[in-house]
UniProtKB/TrEMBL annotation:
Listed GO MF terms: DNA binding; DNA-binding transcription factor activity
Keyword Transcription regulation: yes
Domain of life: Bacteria
Cross-referenced InterPro entries: CBASS_pafABC_assoc_protein (IPR051534), PafC-like (IPR028349), PafC_HTH (IPR043839), Tscrpt_reg_HTH_DeoR_CS (IPR018356), WCX_dom (IPR057727), WYL_dom (IPR026881)
Residues covered by the PafC HTH domain: 8-126
The entry's keywords: DNA-binding, Transcription, Transcription regulation
Protein name (Swiss-Prot/TrEMBL): Transcription regulator hth deor-type conserved site
Keyword Transcription: yes
Phylogenetic placement of the source organism: Bacteria, Bacillati, Actinomycetota, Actinomycetes, Actinomycetales
PROSITE patterns in the record: HTH_DEOR_1, WYL
Annotated ranges, domain WYL: 153-220
Annotated organism of origin: Actinomyces glycerinitolerans
WCX domain mapped to chain residues: 239-313
Length: 340
């Protein structure tokens, strides 16, 4: 049985007082049916809310339910501490949330169910911002977001997770290396910008992470996914290091990648030291940082990244030269594919 999500429980704990306020005297079973859980789970939620409240934890600073009603199997709030009122957003908070939903819509572009919910939420936010209809709704500012995964990838991943089935992936790494492999999926996670599949890779015989927008194809196999135990590993070799000088616009890298900030210049330029798992990972990181970089050390790492970037540009030029597109590609005259 899947372990209950702590996020789902937090959402339910925040919503329960408001629901009880609107349905005073409702039974535990009715609340359980509404939230899609058991009556015992609702009872545990009430026990948790009973010891939740304002700093200090005095009796009049805690959420309170009627003990008499609860003994009879019913729910009634006696002290909601404001949790019975809907959340109010300031104009700035609503705009920030609208922009965030724009990014999330791009992350989940291949998920029609999520797209419908996000569209409804964005419409509601626009109305809250003062737009009476879609015609006069303020257009959301262009939000840079990740490239959507090829059609069918995300639904296939979700089916494999739901059915505990093995996946066959065609994947392009950060260093533009194309591989095919079978994986047993574990979970979908997100850093707020990209969706990533955590899975056990049968080729590497280890857990790996695959960004959804880098999966070219995903096929659900008629083979059940199985649990794996990581094999005993030899001691790791020393991690490779790089020192990057980033423009102020590159602060996102410091926030997303574990690194040591050596110092920050008065103009916001960042000097950071990064330890990578291997050389190829560092090359991919340098390529990702791109226009946000001022310099890279050691120099041979910068040279290797520049060579990889030029190779990618040459490959792209070859595709367009023969009338292809990045989606369908074409093969050079000597028969060697661009992916080799």
């Amino acid at each position: 049985m899947a372990r209950p999500s702590s996020t789902d429980r937090l959402v339910r704990l925040l919503a329960l007082p408001a629901w009880v306020s609107e349905h005073d005297g409702a039974t535990l079973e009715q609340a359980a049916a509404h939230f899609g859980v058991t009556a015992q789970t609702i009872r545990r939620d009430v026990d948790t809310l009973w010891v939740s409240g304002l700093p200090g934890g005095l009796p009049d600073e805690l959420v309170d339910f009627s003990a008499e009603a609860l003994e009879a199997g019913r729910l009634s709030l006696t002290e909601p501490l404001g949790l019975d009122r809907p959340v109010r957003l300031s104009h700035r908070e609503a705009v920030a949330l609208l922009l965030s939903l724009g990014v999330l819509a791009q992350v989940l572009a291949d998920d029609p169910d999520a797209a419908a919910v996000l569209d409804q939420t964005r419409r509601a936010l626009r109305r809250a911002l003062g737009a009476s209809s879609s015609a006069d709704a303020p257009a959301s500012p262009a939000v840079p977001g990740p490239q959507a995964a090829p059609a069918g990838v995300l639904p296939a991943v979700r089916r494999a997770l739901a059915g505990r089935r093995r996946l066959h992936l065609v994947y392009v790494s950060a260093t533009d290396t194309r591989t095919e492999r079978d994986v047993d999926p574990l979970e979908l996670v997100s850093d707020g910008t990209h969706l990533t599949l955590r899975a056990w890779c049968l080729t590497a015989r280890a857990e790996r992470s695959f960004r959804i927008d880098r999966i070219l194809q995903a096929q659900v196999l008629d083979v059940p996914a199985v649990s794996h135990r990581a094999p005993h590993r030899a001691p790791r070799t020393a991690a490779v290091e790089a020192t990057l000088v980033l423009k102020p616009t590159g602060r996102w890298l410091v926030e997303q990648i574990p690194c040591e900030v050596l110092h920050t210049d008065r103009d916001g330029t960042l000097h950071v030291r990064i330890r990578g798992r291997d050389r190829a990972w560092l090359v991919g990181l340098v390529l990702s940082a791109g226009r946000h970089l001022r310099s890279v050390a050691p120099a041979d790492l910068a040279d290797e990244a520049a060579t990889a970037a030029q190779r990618a540009l040459d490959s792209a030029a070859a595709v367009y030269a023969c009338g292809g597109t990045p989606a369908n590609g074409c093969a050079p005259d000597d028969g060697e594919t661009l992916d080799s």
